[in-house]
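Database export, one record per block. Field names are fixed; values are copied verbatim from the stored entry.
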Amino acid sequence: MFLYFFRYSHIKPVDSMKKKALILGIVSVLLSVILASTISSLGDTTYLNKTIHSIPREWSGLDADKAVKYDASKVDLAVIELNFRLRNEIAEPEMSTAQLATLPAGITSFDGDVYSYLSVDTEKMSDEDLMYMDITFKVQKRWLGENNRANEDIVLYYYLDGEWLPLTTRVHALVDTYVMYKSTSFNFGTFAVSFRQVEKTDSGSDIEAVETTKADAPKISPIKTPKIIVEKPKPAPKTESLRGVSVFLIIVILLIYYYYIRDMSGKRVTKNKRKNKNR
């Protein structure tokens, strides 16, 4: 529509100031679209687009088959608490957990909406030493509502050898704007908080992904999450989306400039003809 206006503006003259204001308005709207697109594309590999580390915990020693609690609630991250037992006695073990905005290199992204990636890292403790680990974490009710999902649809997934394995997950409590969950894992490593997935059989019917239990829990050590130095990494932008929008903006601006210059040139020619005629 605005191209039509610039093309036929010599038929219906418009005040030059109004035309300049219109140009600035159009460019402002386009820049706003670009900015919104840029912000959205720089953001969410996860809903919680922020990496936060808990305070590492060290013990002088841990006994076998003894309940151990790791409290991560002092830091505002998705993981609240870890409760675990070890098969073996361990001297001077260490543990830390983190909420990850993006996954480290070498770990395949989860295929689906992700609330947050989590990691549980240890020193001097391995999966072979772990009897079990109960993970307490929280999810914002708003995220569930935005995705039209029920509280019971949340599942914690564990990463192993290129696959995300669903773990038994249950609603633990409702606290203010959060739903609290508990999930049981038999490995340390990297996790993803997402929705319960439904798989398709060859016949086309739906089946729910089978949750991993203690009986079939993998005994292979997972890829350990490397230490992350940058606290708030910036995810790589979606360059294809940005490139397309940028090209569109350049084309529009060039078209505006072309029609504006052509219109002004036409006015100059008309003005010169009038001057020559008056002479």
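Remark 1: The domain at 52-208 is CATH 2.60.220 (Chondroitinase Ac; Chain A, domain 3).
Remark 2: DSSP finds four helices and 16 strands in the chain.
End of record.
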